[in-house]
Amino acid sequence: MSAAATVEAVRLHGTTKRRFAVLPHSIPPMTLAYMAGLFDGEGHISISHRRYPKTAPTRRPYSGLSVRIGIGNKSVAACELFRENFGGCLYRDAQNIRKVGGVHRWALSDLAVEWPLKALLPYLRIKKPQAELALIFRDLQREMKTRRGNGPVAPEDRAEQERMWLLLKNLNRGKPVQSVAW
């Protein structure tokens, strides 16, 4: 484990989730540059739809969008580097275990994606537009939460989220996009 201060480590469903109290400036720039190179080649940034059914009589069904980032690599060391510095979840994807020996994956979602993306952003080349859009999306979510509290999402806010989801989807597919900046 790195010099990062571990706040909590919890064993959950066969994967270890760790939350760190690490500031981006405490990671050496050379390490961030290396991690950005790995992320450019092996990483992903997505906005995914999440649907939660009504699980209790007092709870209403929930549907929303959330930002997810992660990398997949045959080397557990590459994924472990991200977990040590940014926290998150590390697991082994056994889907192609016979063909390629399985893939190790590191993932983060929701609020936890912000500072890793901010830390890697100056060093990213290929995924820089996606990272910028994901950060804009998180800002929009924060602004919406401030405006509405715990109430439902306004139709215009939902439309803006869906527009950003489609834009990121097109960026990930290599389709031309006018501009990421708003």
Overview of this structure, please?
This protein is an alpha+beta fold. The protein has one domain (6-172): Endonuclease I-creI. It is 41% helix and 26% strand. The protein is built from six helices and six strands. It has helices at residues 29-42, 76-86, 97-100, 114-120, 128-148, 155-172, and strands spanning 6-12, 15-20, 43-52, 62-73, 88-93, 103-109. Strands 1-2-5-6-4-3 form a six-stranded antiparallel beta sheet. Helix 5 (128-148) runs antiparallel to helix 6 (155-172). Residues 1-21 have low confidence and may be disordered.
Major beta sheet, strand line-up: 1-2-5-6-4-3
Radius of gyration: 17 Å
Helix content: 40-55%
Which structural class best describes the helix and strand composition? alpha+beta
How many angstroms does the end-to-end distance come to? Answer: 39 Å
H and E order: EEHEEHEHEHHH
Global shape: globular
Beta-strand percentage? 25-35%
Give the CATH H-level superfamily.
Homing endonucleases
Second CATH tier, the architecture? Roll
Low-confidence stretches: 1-21
Integer average pLDDT: 78
Major sheet details: 6 strands, antiparallel
* CATH C-level class: Alpha Beta
| Number of domains as seen in the coordinates | 1
CATH third-level topology: Endonuclease I-creI
